[in-house]
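Reopening this ticket.

The earlier resolution said the output was attached, but the attachment link was broken on my side. Pasting everything inline this time so it's all in one place.
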Amino acid sequence: QTTFDFRYGEGKDYNGPMLFGTPFFQRTGINVVSILGSGTPYSSSSRVINEGVGVGSHTLDGSLNGARLPWQFTTDMQIDRDIPLTFGKKDGVDKGKAANLNVYLLVTNVFNTQNIVGVWRATGSPTDDGYLASPLYQNEIALQTDPQSYSDLYALKVNNPYNFGSPRTIRLGVRFDF
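Inline output:
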């Protein structure tokens, strides 16, 4: 994991670019977090089963947790700006209460990397469990009312979106600190 955080100060601590004499990036910052990791282990299976309906049991191929998912990489970035707020009396005895409004833009998975976080044990694929191509089940598939429709719908069923990490998301938000 690598983290980079850069912020411009305010007042005399500001050292950023000026726009018409105004410290444009005052109290503004950027934060970037990149994570690179090897794939997590899983136990592969030598037996293809009908994962679509969950029928059958796996036969361990190799050692327990002997296979690994692919490497994963993701980068998140946040740009934010603090806006100081003061509540209460200015000229009276009470100097007021200070608060902070933080406006931010958060982008997760900046490069929209398609990370594989789960696979089917018999094939090691995130989208295909091997059932439709297995010679063992061709007769069972052929006996369906509409084999082509069955195959198409089965392929949709096992193409599990939860086998992939989250896609790029962009959030615009406001935090109020007091």
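Reporter confirms the inline version is readable. Helices lie at 138-142, 147-158. Residues 76 and 108 are 4 Å apart (CA to CA).
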